[in-house]
Design brief:
The chain has helices at about 1-35, 40-50, 50-60, 70-105, and strands at about 120-125, 165-170, 175, 250-255, 275-285, 305-310, 315-320, 330-335, 340-350, 355-360, 365-370, 375-380, 390-395, 405-410, 415-420, 425-435, 440-445, 450-460, 465-470, 470-475, 490, 490-500, 510-515, 530-535, 540-545, 550-560, 560-565, 575-580, 585-590, 600-605, 620, 640, 650-660, 660-670, 680. By secondary structure, the protein is α+β, with helices and mostly antiparallel strands. The protein is globular.
């Protein structure tokens, strides 16, 4: 009994010792982590290890109160163990504090290229009370008026007059509101800063994922660049551009290397004669941000990756709602289990633009966001089908604006997130994730001008293909000022190829002009508008665009040649996308109609081998969920494709936009006769 009483007394004294240490650490180390001045750090350390502090701790153990020698030994040993633990804890706390001091006020430039250091991690809990997205109510606050045109899709928009000043971004294309007075909804745990050592993953390549890389062109004949040359372009090799290709209704083959013979292209055989069929049509949400003439809406950004499908058949898509202002839109991750309905999984601060979603090789969900539009890139990853998300920031010398960011992933799991820099000279800035090492690395190259709305397609040898359209002011190209309030112009599309995008010395290996048109009017802006880019199973790069004066076109980069063909049968050139089925390799162009009431599928004609000959469309009535022809507020049909992480398939899942609505569709491209299949159309009741 005496021993038990003695043990209880000893336990109480241990608890007192621990509580004292915990209070001291909370008071001193907590203040230490949030202090950035070295003098303050030394003061906190001195306080923690001062003579008065130690006398206070040692006074807990009165040697006269200890009745037995064994208790003295135990108490002394316990004090030594606790002291060691506190020292280790103090060391771990000091490391992030020092890193924060080194980067405060300097962006993230203090990190070296290729650094695996993650500035912060955060776990998102599943928001409570989130049912089907159609019932979601956005925050009560509304964005500040007085925004200007987004820059890509001008269409002669005149910004409304407002007494509230708008802070112009570095791009001059879309605005940044003054700091919002309300904060975005929460649903997240407290931010913690810890160093993380990435664990290399062993990639598992899906069998059906295309593994053929792009076929770059040979070096072209030099011609003068269109934009003023940058003052320094030491970080990138920039071959001059090819001559502008003539455009006719017949295929044009432009050789860029007289000594190179294109490889023969296999003939497609066994093309199914069964027509495509629409099998599902439903509404994801009617709460997407889409107020006309207020930027940046959910449908903005033709290059955005919006939907993926996991191996168990679950679908994940993303959209943005109003949030608390133009710099703090709110992203939403939606999930539809196989055969189920759409359910909200996660939300967060998107920044200005719609966010990108990619699918990893082990069904990981990857999102890329820019909270607050502050030039800090966040990578959000979920390994449990969206139930929880881990947030890490990716170090890099990012532009403060979001830079029209786009993302891509290859069959091995390597990922690229790319943003674009200012007008003249321009820049590509990207983060490369090497799945074999588990490390993100930052890269930057200079361009003659800014090229935006970039489609990002990583190859399997660390190579990278980028297709983008030039986006600068008319005066910077020597043109007369616009007669509208929108002075940016899109009249050139360019192909870029980087042989090793993961190298610290990454440079642009090749770049070629795909299309270039001089404006015929001082009011014209969207003259050559890029709508899609796709690398097919033979490694050829397909580029779709609409010429304002001549209509829809397709360019194919392969085997030392650029082949350009007109696509007069396409009803709406601004809304067209291209893909292949997995059974025969047949090509399809998918687009909404110009009136938005039908979803059109254009199969390749019999005998077509390279996706240049298409039949008249198979039209599906979508009038109950009609779209529109504006590419800012009604985005193109966007579906699962290899650059987003999905292998080619004969049944595609996709979404298209219509102002505040995001609409889901499923199409069977080819296969057994499906003429008797009745589309499953879900009309959501309000």
């Amino acid at each position: 009994m005496f021993f038990i009483d003695d043990l209880q007394g000893f336990t109480r004294r241990c608890q007192t010792l621990w509580d004292t240490w915990r209070k001291l650490l909370r008071k001193n180390v907590g203040a230490l982590v949030h202090s950035l001045a070295h003098s303050q750090i030394r003061a906190r350390v001195a306080t923690l290890f001062s003579r008065a502090t130690w006398l206070r701790i040692l006074s807990i153990f009165s040697w006269q109160a200890l009745k037995r020698n064994r208790e003295r030994v135990m108490a002394g040993g316990l004090a030594i163990v606790l002291f060691s633990i506190c020292c280790v804890s103090l060391y771990l706390q000091l490391q992030p504090a020092h890193a924060h001091y080194a980067t405060a006020g300097k962006g993230l430039t203090a990190f070296s290229t290729g650094s695996p250091y993650i500035v912060s991690t955060r776990v998102y809990a599943t928001p409570t009370g989130v049912a089907n997205a159609g019932g979601y109510q956005p925050p009560s606050s509304t964005p500040t008026s007085g925004t200007v045109n987004s820059g890509g899709p001008g269409n002669g928009y005149t910004p409304p007059v407002s007494a509230t000043p708008t802070v112009q971004s570095t791009y001059g294309n879309y605005p940044t509101d003054p700091p919002p007075t309300s904060t975005p909804p929460g649903g997240k745990s407290t931010l913690t800063r810890v160093p993380v050592t990435p664990v290399p993953a062993t990639p598992t390549v899906p069998v059906s994922m295309p593994t053929v890389g792009p076929t770059p062109l040979a070096d072209p004949t030099p011609v003068p660049a269109t934009c003023p040359a940058p003052t320094s372009i030491a970080t990138a090799t920039s071959p001059a551009l090819t001559p502008v290709l003539p455009i006719t209704q017949e295929p044009i083959v432009s050789s860029v290397s007289p000594t190179e013979t294109p490889e023969p292209v296999p003939t497609v055989t066994g093309i199914s004669s069964m027509p495509p069929v629409l099998t599902r049509l439903s509404q994801v949400t009617d709460q997407a941000f889409g107020t006309n003439n207020v930027y940046v809406p959910n449908s903005w950004g033709v290059q955005k990756s919006r939907i993926v499908r996991t191996s168990n058949g679950d679908l994940f898509t993303v959209y943005i709602s109003a949030g608390s202002g133009v710099s703090d839109r709110e992203w939403h991750l939606m999930r539809m289990e196989s055969g189920g309905t759409w359910t909200g999984m996660q939300t967060g601060d998107a920044g200005t633009e719609p966010v990108n979603i990619l699918l990893g090789i082990h069904d990981e969900i990857h999102l890329f966001t820019w909270p607050g539009t502050k030039g800090v890139l966040h990578h959000l990853k979920s390994t449990d089908l969206g139930k929880t998300i881990v947030d890490e920031t990716i170090a890099g010398d990012w532009d403060v604006s979001q830079g029209y960011s786009g993302a891509g992933i290859n069959a091995q799991g390597d990922m690229v997130l790319l943003e674009t820099g200012a007008d003249v000279p321009g820049e590509f800035l990207w983060a490369y994730y090497d799945v074999s090492s588990g490390v993100w690395s930052f890269h930057k190259v200079s361009l003659d001008c800014r090229y935006t709305y970039a489609f990002v397609m990583p190859g399997n040898q660390h190579d990278l293909t980028i297709v983008a359209m030039r986006d600068v002011k008319r005066e910077e190209l020597g043109y007369s000022p616009s007669t509208t309030s929108f002075d940016y112009i899109f009249n050139e599309i360019k192909y870029f190829y980087i042989k090793d995008a993961s190298s610290p010395d990454a440079t642009i290996t090749q770049q070629f002009t795909i299309a270039n048109e001089k404006p015929k009017s001082a009011a014209d802006a969207d003259i050559t508008y890029l709508t899609d880019s796709y690398i097919d199973t033979q490694g050829r790069t397909h580029i779709l665009y609409e010429d304002q004066y001549k209509g829809p076109y397709e360019a194919i980069v392969a085997g030392g040649e650029i082949k350009t063909v007109a696509l007069p049968q396409i009803d709406s050139g601004r809304k067209m996308r291209i893909t292949q089925d997995s059974m025969t390799g047949r090509f399809y162009i998918i687009a909404t109609s110009s009136d938005g009431k039908s979803l059109n599928v254009y199969p390749a004609a019999t005998g077509d081998t390279d996706g240049t000959q298409f039949t008249e469309p198979v039209r599906f009535d979508i009038s109950q969920y009609a779209s529109c022809d504006d590419y800012d507020f009604c985005h193109s049909p966007t579906f699962i494709v290899p650059r987003s992480g999905n292998a080619l398939t004969d049944t595609i899942d996709g979404v298209y936009g219509s102002y505040g609505k995001e609409i889901y569709f499923q199409i069977i491209l080819s296969g057994p006769d499906s003429s008797d299949v009745t589309p499953q159309v879900t009309v959501q009741k309000k």
